[in-house]
Each structure stands twice: as structure tokens, then as C-alpha cells.
């Protein structure tokens, strides 16, 4: 369930309360409701730690208690364009690269056309990051499934978005920071997997 809340600052936010009764499919990713809430916040924190073109890629997200129930709340982004009506060539290549690299680093397992918003500046805003930072995937190496999703969402046969050179500064940054400030939200296993 997702609720629209008006915050004290008069900014609207999307609130997702933890639902312990959430059912997962048989081939689940072993990401439970509490971890999904933490992942939403960790994705925002990661985009800010990476900085540059990554900063602001995920709308501000925090944990909030609303009427006695914990949940994640994400600042509203106004949708200007429908992802089905735009082509990759209309995006600033820097933003497209940042989105693809971010989803690879965070191991996003749920990126599709309904899970990003295109704002008035033709910038992608990545939402619904609960199914990220997996610790393992059954029968698959970590992040293989995530990279398949990224390929189908951000890549086309005519244009490759990411080159090896794009990853070098990110690798250096991740090597220089121990937990990236996200050890409050992610398990040691998920952090280590992300750093690899």
C-alpha cells in the first residue's frame, strides 16, 4: 500500500507502511518488508554519497512513523513525461548513464517503466527501490538478474549506455569509503556484495 501524505514543509510524500503480511512469490529474493523499507532509504543515501550526476537521482527518502506504523516516505516528484512516449535519445546521456550505473551498483531487481519518473527537465527519478541490495539470488550469481533488468530498461541494440571508463571513478569512490554511510540500513552481507 502507498499513501500520499502532506509533510510539515507542505511537500507531498509517498508513504509505504511496513506490512508484515506481504506475500512473496516462490522464487523470492529473500528481501522482507523491514529490509525493503531500509532499502528505500539506502538507495537515496547511496545516490547522495555518489554525488555528481547521481545526486538527486533518487528522491529524498526517510523512515517515518505515521499513526504508530513505521514506513518509508519519499518526496513527491511531478511526472512530466510518460516513459512510454520518450526515446533514449531524448535523455541527457549523463543522466542515463547515472541511472544505469546506479541500478547496477544497488542491484535493483525491480526497475521497469513504472518505477522511474521523468520530470520537466527530462531527468529520471528512480523510485520503488525496495527490491535492491540483494544478499543472494537463488541459482544465480549476485546482481546477474539486476543487470538483465537494466539491460532491458536502459539499453537498446543501437546504443550502449555504459563504458568501462564510466565505472572507474565509481569503483575508486566505493573503494575509498568503508560502508558508504549505509551500515545503518544494510546488512554486512549486502554491503560487501554491493562493494564487489
Textual characterization of the structure:
The structure is a single chain. The protein is α+β, with helices and mostly antiparallel strands. Helices cover 33% and strands 15% of the residues. About 4% of the residues have low confidence.
String of helices and strands: EEHEEHEEHHH
The dominant shape is globular
Distance between the amino and carboxyl termini: 33 Å
- Name the poorly predicted regions: 139-145
The computed structural class is alpha+beta
- Count of DSSP helices? 5
The overall pLDDT average reads 76
Trace the largest sheet across and list its strands: 1-2-4-3
- Helical residue percent band: 25-40%
Keywords:
single chain; 196 residues; alpha+beta; 4-stranded antiparallel β-sheet; 33% helix
Topology, please?
Layout: E1 3-6, E2 12-17, H1 33-50, E3 61-66, E4 69-75, H2 93-106, E5 116-118, E6 124-126, H3 144-154, H4 164-176, H5 188-195
Antiparallel strand pairs: 1-2, 2-4, 3-4, 5-6
Helix pairs in contact: 2-3
Quick structural overview:
With 196 residues, the chain is of the alpha+beta class. The chain is built from five helices and six strands; from the N terminus they run E-E-H-E-E-H-E-E-H-H-H. The protein has helices at residues 33-50, 93-106, 144-154, 164-176, 188-195, and strands at residues 3-6, 12-17, 61-66, 69-75, 116-118, 124-126.
Amino acid at each position: 500500500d502507498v499513501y500520499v501524505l502532506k509533510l510539515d514543509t507542505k511537500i507531498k510524500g509517498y508513504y509505504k507502511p511496513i506490512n508484515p503480511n506481504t506475500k512473496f512469490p516462490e522464487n523470492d529474493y529473500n528481501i522482507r518488508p523491514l529490509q525493503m523499507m531500509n532499502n528505500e532509504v539506502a538507495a537515496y543515501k547511496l545516490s547522495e554519497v555518489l554525488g555528481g550526476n547521481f545526486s538527486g537521482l533518487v528522491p529524498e527518502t526517510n523512515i517515518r512513523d505515521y499513526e504508530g506504523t513505521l514506513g518509508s516516505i519519499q518526496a513527491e516528484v511531478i511526472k512530466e513525461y510518460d516513459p512510454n512516449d520518450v526515446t533514449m535519445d531524448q535523455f541527457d546521456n549523463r543522466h542515463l548513464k547515472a541511472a544505469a550505473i546506479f541500478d547496477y551498483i544497488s542491484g535493483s531487481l525491480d526497475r521497469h517503466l513504472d518505477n522511474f519518473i521523468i520530470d520537466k527537465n527530462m531527468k529520471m527519478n528512480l523510485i520503488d527501490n525496495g527490491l535492491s541490495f540483494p544478499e543472494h539470488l537463488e541459482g544465480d550469481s549476485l546482481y546477474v538478474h539486476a543487470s538483465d533488468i537494466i539491460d532491458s530498461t536502459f539499453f537498446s541494440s543501437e546504443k550502449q549506455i555504459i563504458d568501462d571508463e564510466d565505472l572507474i571513478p565509481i569503483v575508486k569512490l566505493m573503494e575509498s569509503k568503508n560502508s558508504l554511510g549505509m551500515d545503518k540500513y544494510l546488512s554486512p552481507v549486502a554491503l560487501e556484495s554491493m562493494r564487489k
